[in-house]
Amino acid sequence: MTTLTVDLISPYEVREQFKLLHTRDTRWFIGVAHRRAGKTVADINELIIGALKCRRANPRFAYVAPQLNQAKDIAWVYLKEYTQFLRPKINESELYVDLPGGARIRIYGADNPDRLRGIYLDGVVLDEFGDMDPTIWTQVIRPALSDRNGWACFIGTPKGKNTFHRLWTEAEDSQMATMLYVIVDPAASTVRWVNAGHPPPLLIGEGQVEFLQGDASVPLGVLPFPTYEEVTAPLAPGHSLLLYTDGLVERPGEHLDEGLGRLAACLREATENTHELLEHVVDTLVPAGGAPDDVALLILRNLPVPARFSAELPS
User: Fold this and answer.
1) Phi and psi for 256 in degrees, rounded to 5?
2) Is the pLDDT score of 8 beyond 80?
């Protein structure tokens, strides 16, 4: 059998000011640009790059502008232009392109948030977020990213001290922190948690390893009025819950899924002894020269309680 390799060359030429956008290794990105900087072209191509890199089944990506007519007049034209070399399937009425391999990029307007409800997303660009109702992020788009651990880019131009201004200044001042707040109820064999942009907790038991995704909202300090939904999952007797910092799984230039996959594979090989398990994880996943960020782990085991309990006490 003969294999033919064809090089596909994108017409996109990256401007210096957008190199950081395309080379970032963070899940969230905030960018400020003036009106003629070429941000919409960069936004569209970031979605194309993300769609081509995504290895999940049926990837979905979205470009969101304050109004659909704005997006259709500008972003839709760019999306067709910069995907032409890939020979996509174009749907003019629904404003999406399907790329080879099954990825789809679609254009939306924040003026009709109902069109975004109930979908899942692997990545999204919110162009001129300061002109949108911020609840479209907290109530609509953020939940759409949860199941697939998708990323988001907030791009805009300065327009006074609006929501986008606060987003930028708080990020610039590093007034952000991820948080995982967990309550374990051994009697009920449950675990409850809220997640503010932190890597998901991991359930271990009976040879199985499962990430408890639930809802992972934005880090603390990103938005003025974020919402955090409580999620509950069973924690059977004998099962364990592993909590960890992002330094264990994140590596520069990698998608977070790769680090999470390494962690899951490592735990499948580990013993059930908690001390040995933690040592195995650290020895396997932390580079010899140290991780690029802090690494901390905490494991909680729900110990089985016997049906009958007896004790002898001295008289």
Assistant:
1) -55, -35
2) no
Structure tokens at 170: 């708080």
Residue 300: exposure state from Cβ atoms within 10 A (0-12, 13-18, ≥19): middle
Which string of b and e fits 147-185 if b means at least 16 CB within 10 Å?
ebbbbbbbbbbeeeeebbebbbebbeeeeeebebeeeee
How far apart are the C-alpha atoms of 166 and 162, rounded to whole Å?
A: 7
Dihedrals φ, ψ of 100, to 5°?
-55, 135
Residue 90: burial class (beta carbons within 10 Å; 0-12, 13-18, 19+): middle
Nearest to 179 by CA among 235, 274, 239, 243: 243
Q: Angle, nearest 10°, between helix axes 75-83 and 39-53?
A: 50
Structure tokens at 298: 């905490």
Residue 83: count of CB within 10 angstroms of its CB = 23
281: Cβ contacts below 8 Å, ≥ 6 apart: 248, 263, 266, 267, 270, 297
Domain 16-172 has CATH 3.40.50.300: yes
Q: Model-level pTM?
A: 0.58
Report CA torsion sign: 75, 147, 214, 254. negative
Q: What whole-number distance in Å separates Cα of residue 210 and Cα of residue 23?
A: 30
Q: How confident is the model at residue 202 (pLDDT cuts 50, 70, 90)?
A: very high
Tell me: the pLDDT tens digits for 44-85? 999 999 999 998 889 999 999 999 998 898 899 999 999 999
Q: What CATH architecture does domain 179-301 belong to?
A: 4-Layer Sandwich (3.60)
How confident is the model at residue 15, as a pLDDT?
A: 84
- With a CB cutoff of 8 Å and minimum separation 6, the contacts of 30 are 153, 154, 155, 167, 168, 171
With beta carbons less than 8 A apart as the criterion, state whether 240 and 300 touch: yes
Do 157 and 35 contact (CB within 8 A), yes or no?
Answer: yes
Q: Where are the domains of the chain?
A: 16-172, 179-301
